[in-house]
TrEMBL record:
One GO cellular component, as annotated: plasma membrane
Name of the protein: Sugar transporter SWEET
Subcellular location(s) per record: Cell membrane; Golgi apparatus membrane
Residue ranges of the TM segments: 44-65, 77-96, 102-121, 133-151, 163-183, 195-212, 224-243
Family: Belongs to the SWEET sugar transporter family.
GO molecular function, one term: sugar transmembrane transporter activity
Keyword Magnesium attached: no
Function as written in the Swiss-Prot or TrEMBL entry: Mediates sugar transport across membranes.
Lineage summary: Eukaryota, Metazoa, Ecdysozoa, Nematoda, Chromadorea
Length: 259
């Protein structure tokens, strides 16, 4: 009888243990599946965002084509190429520190593309303006070198991540803020003729993808600038509804704004 009672107690204990552990097991399974799903989305977004961003970088060929056609860089500023190149250099270093393959790849490719743009721009610039361009390019090369040396330095890893992340975030905000120049002209002329619609759509798509990517990997330095970029792109696209394109209201002026 005692053995039987003892056996019942053991059985009850086993049952209770199973019941108690069941929710924990389900929670672990759910957490694992959630993590796997999150990683799957990270992989998808890293691929699509990389492809679309590289396509966006290639939009600079329109400006290069115009420079080639005119045989000079007069009337075309170097700032868009310069800012994007410096930003790509910074993000490449940040990607190395974070061991983020997507960030390294897209910004490494962007750095090469923007550097080629800058070299061609320099080649097509005539004196005396070429002296100023030479100084700017040497300063850019200096920043490249400083970025590389800092990433490879013996400073604490977390400090390097935070410092590079902050610098990259500020550079990105400065770069994505350049389209605001077009917004002012649109409001003055009440026409969106000066704004390339497809470029605005592409900017929005790229910014949304990188914003979602930043949320999934929980990176504040990706979330903030891309959130701002989404707001700016949304404002630009809304202007196409408020002020439809009307070339008759637009002053004859070439635009060279590029991300």
């Amino acid at each position: 009888m005692t053995a039987e009672v003892f056996g019942v107690r053991i059985s009850s204990g086993l049952v209770m243990t199973k019941v108690t552990n069941a929710p924990t097991d389900h929670s672990k399974i759910a957490a694992t599946r959630s993590t796997e799903l999150c990683m799957a989305w990270v992989d998808v977004l890293s691929f699509t965002a990389t492809c679309s961003t590289i396509c966006l970088f290639m939009c600079g060929t329109q400006i290069i084509s115009r420079i080639h056609k005119h045989g000079t860089t007069e009337g075309t500023g170097i700032a868009p190429f310069l800012l994007t190149a410096i930003s790509c250099a910074g993000w490449t270093g940040y990607g190395v520190l974070k061991n983020d393959g997507a960030v390294i790849l897209v910004n490494g490719v962007g750095l090469v593309i923007q550097s080629l743009y800058l070299l061609y721009y320099y080649r097509m610039t005539h004196y005396p303006r070429k002296r100023n361009i030479t100084r700017l390019l040497l300063f850019t090369l200096f920043l490249y070198t400083v970025t590389f040396l800092y990433v490879q330095s013996d400073r604490p890893h977390s400090e390097k991540e935070n410092y590079m992340g902050l610098i990259c975030m500020l550079l990105t905000i400065a770069t994505i803020g350049s389209p605001l120049v077009d917004v002012g002209q649109v409001i003055r002329t009440k026409s969106t003729e000066s704004m390339p619609f497809m470029l605005c759509v592409t900017n929005m798509a790229v910014s949304v993808q990188w914003l979602l990517y930043g949320i999934l990997v929980d990176d504040i330095y990706m979330k903030i600038p891309n959130f701002i970029a989404v707001l700016i792109s949304g404002m630009q696209l809304s202007l196409f509804i408020v002020y439809p394109p009307n070339s008759s209201r637009l002053p004859h002026k070439s635009s060279d704004i590029i991300l």
